[in-house]
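Section 5: illustrative case.
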């Protein structure tokens, strides 16, 4: 017979409830939740403990094979402590009721979901948002996503994804913040804070989950899930910092990655989970695996079978098994055999229960179940406006010959391309509960303007995103001949980037480029509007289009934001956070490369170069144009020689020399000329976004300490080394002024 002790447990917890207003991620030495957690733990059977260490997807949707059905029984029997892919108040309430009212102990469930760039109101994809370099806006977008999710019954997002990546073939670059660890770390912090806030006292914050720990963004050959193999120095200097920043910002959960690192899959990597995560970084939250990544250790050739894989994961420090049911099936046996200790299980369960306490779920398991709030918050007008605002900030102007843009009001427009009238793809990959059909397309936005402003607008699709059908070209060309200007909206479908969406060729798919060639042949100026989830290669277009605008996947109000940019109602201010290669053969290509013993010289043979292409990218990291122009006065540094205790002050005066107001992202880079190990030719160490009216100037000041010059030295200690450095500033990673300084002991 089922013991109906929920009221008993509630009472017990009430007695024990001391302080609960503890900041999220608090590292206080005396754990204020300890006695409450222990009082629950003391009531639990081993099966129930293992249940807390288990998360299943409901059958709402899934990202892989659903291993186990009948999750309702798992909840009822205390065999599952968390669920994902279940949302909306109505659905989560139903499931929570089973947990609270029908399970023996009534321990509330945790509901997780991939809210990557919005729940229902969809924001630009994270890679796009990162191009805004606007930390406040990025935090706001995460905060809105959290508020909508929390209103829809969710407690937990599997975000932010903070994997650094220099691999445009890898489809998941769309989920991250690009190639740079400095910017990536700041964005990780902003996103964690946006999702979690300072605490969970209210009802509008959800748990963040830093993923995928670790190094997932560097798969060999850009193939998703592939092996990762890098030096420890590269790992610590480049790939690890954003995870650490997210942890330092208080992220309460972390997800292991699918990949191996130096031969050890992350999900069974004790060094990673125990030493790096918990000991070095003081992480106090819980570790969840990625989808069946325990089971996959068998395929990796690291575990003999699922049971063995579960033992490796538990002993490495995994707290929760996502979807693999390995803990559920085997952990008890492994404990009986003495391969995993019950103490290990208790620790894992403590971490999970603690977070349920932090969220306030023991006090009120239905805290996030409020239909009225859900109705008011989700897809609200205010959220949609915010999505449009950040979409504008994320759009990068890559080319603008002869001031083709902004569009002159009144001119007739031919709007062509497979994505011009498309709504579905605007939400991009990993778009939560987003509904593509509710997006505003570019054509929708232009039609609205045409009706208001009275200009002539024609539209033809021209071709599909993929496939070789060119039968629509003639219509596209014919409407283009009659227009003053052609806007071609082309790119990838949302399924072409994201998980399991690696591409060996990162060109415009199908016959889209061929169509653009025909449009250019009309002699009319062609504005190419790109929608995609990764850097693409399009050298012919880069040379022949009059203007190019990289919009990424802009979200629910994408079309409106794009029209705002094209008409100059918003002056583009975004800059690339991933290098755009000229050709796939240059990949991996990134700005912070090493100099090598034979640095690039296009005029001689025996140096680090290609026979058939230059080394430089199509568009470098940090690049983006504006409708105005900015000039940089000469860069000043406060001195020539600094000790380790000094502050290096660099300043540069920026003037808006154009005729419209605009925002510039001023960037600061450093180079350590000689090290105990070689150092990159440039590393971003600061930036500032400055808004300037025409003719206005501002002195932008950067302050660096020796810590900003530190790296993992020959003996792997993190410190700066004395010597000569370049301090560089400019509008992107290529156009830089430099000053030399010395750092002395
Ligand atoms: C992805 C994760 C995601 C999980 C749950 C996996 O396939 O790699 O990023 O959070 O599925 O949906």
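Designed sequence:
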């Amino acid at each position: 017979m089922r013991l109906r002790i929920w009221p008993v447990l509630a009472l017990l917890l009430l007695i024990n409830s001391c302080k609960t207003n503890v900041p999220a991620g608090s590292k206080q030495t005396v754990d204020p939740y300890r006695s409450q957690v222990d009082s629950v733990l003391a009531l639990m059977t081993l099966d129930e403990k293992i249940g807390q260490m288990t998360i299943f997807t409901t059958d709402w949707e899934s990202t892989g094979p659903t291993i186990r059905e009948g999750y309702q029984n798992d909840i009822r029997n205390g065999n599952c402590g968390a669920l994902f892919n279940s949302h909306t108040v109505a659905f989560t309430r139903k499931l929570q009721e089973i947990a609270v009212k029908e399970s023996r102990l009534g321990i509330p469930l945790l509901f997780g979901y991939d809210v990557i760039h919005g729940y229902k109101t969809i924001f630009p994809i994270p890679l796009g948002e990162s191009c805004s370099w606007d930390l406040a806006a990025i935090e706001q977008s995460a905060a809105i996503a959290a508020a909508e999710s929390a209103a829809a019954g969710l407690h937990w997002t599997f975000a932010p994804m903070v994997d650094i990546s220099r691999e445009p073939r890898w489809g998941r670059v769309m989920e991250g913040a690009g190639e740079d660890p400095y910017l990536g770390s700041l964005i990780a912090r902003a996103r964690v804070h946006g999702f979690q806030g300072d605490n969970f006292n209210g009802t509008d914050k959800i748990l963040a989950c830093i993923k995928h720990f670790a190094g997932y963004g560097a798969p060999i050959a850009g193939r998703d899930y592939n092996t990762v193999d890098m030096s420890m120095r590269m790992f610590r200097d480049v790939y690890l910092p954003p995870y650490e920043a997210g942890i330092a910002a208080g992220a309460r959960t972390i997800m292991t990655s699918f990949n191996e690192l130096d031969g050890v899959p992350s999900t069974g990597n004790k060094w990673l989970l125990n030493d790096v995560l918990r000991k070095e970084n003081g992480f106090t939250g819980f570790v969840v695996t990625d989808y069946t990544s325990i089971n996959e250790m068998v395929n990796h050739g690291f575990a003999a079978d699922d049971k063995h894989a579960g033992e490796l994961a538990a002993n490495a420090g995994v707290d929760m098994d996502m979807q693999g049911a390995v803990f559920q099936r085997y952990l008890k046996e492994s404990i009986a055999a003495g391969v995993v200790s019950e103490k290990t299980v208790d620790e894992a369960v403590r971490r999970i229960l603690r977070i349920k306490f932090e969220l306030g779920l023991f006090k009120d398991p239905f805290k996030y179940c409020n239909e009225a709030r859900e109705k008011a918050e989700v897809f609200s007008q205010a959220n949609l406006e915010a999505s449009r605002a950040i979409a504008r900030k994320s759009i990068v102007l890559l080319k603008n010959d002869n001031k083709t843009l902004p569009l002159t009001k009144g001119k007739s427009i031919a709007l062509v391309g497979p994505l011009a009238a498309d709504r579905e793809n605007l939400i991009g990959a990993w778009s939560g509960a987003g509904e593509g059909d509710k997006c505003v397309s570019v054509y929708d936005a232009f039609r609205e303007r045409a009706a208001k402003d009275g200009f002539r607008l024609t539209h033809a699709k021209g071709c599909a995103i993929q496939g070789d059908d060119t039968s629509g070209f003639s219509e596209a060309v014919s409407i283009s001949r009659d227009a003053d200007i052609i806007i071609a909206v082309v790119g990838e479908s949302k399924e072409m980037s994201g998980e399991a969406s690696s591409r060996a060729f990162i060109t415009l798919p199908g016959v889209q480029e061929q169509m653009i060639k025909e449009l250019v042949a009309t002699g009319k100026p062609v504005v190419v509007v790109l929608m995609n989830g990764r850097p693409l290669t399009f050298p012919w277009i880069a040379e022949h289009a009059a203007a190019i605008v990289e919009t990424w996947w802009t979200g629910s109000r994408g079309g409106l934001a794009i029209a705002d940019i094209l008409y100059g109602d918003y002056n583009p201010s975004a800059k690339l956070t991933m290098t755009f290669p000229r050709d796939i053969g240059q990949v991996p290509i990134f700005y912070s490369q090493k100099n090598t013993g034979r640095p690039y010289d296009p005029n001689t043979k025996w140096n680090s170069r290609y026979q058939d292409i230059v080394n430089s990218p199509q568009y470098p990291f940090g690049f983006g144009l504006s409708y105005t122009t900015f000039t940089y006065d000469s860069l000043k540094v406060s001195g020539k020689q600094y000790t380790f205790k000094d502050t290096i002050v660099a300043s540069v005066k920026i003037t808006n020399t154009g005729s419209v107001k605009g925002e510039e992202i001023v960037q600061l880079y450093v180079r350590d000329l000689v090290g105990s190990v070689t150092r990159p030719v440039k590393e971003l160490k600061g930036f500032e976004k400055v808004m300037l009216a025409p003719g206005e100037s501002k002195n932008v000041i950067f302050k660096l300490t020796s810590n900003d010059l530190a790296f993992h030295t020959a003996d792997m200690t993190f410190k700066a080394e004395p010597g000569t450095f370049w301090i560089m500033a400019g509008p992107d990673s290529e156009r830089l002024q430099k000053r030399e300084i010395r750092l002395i002991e």
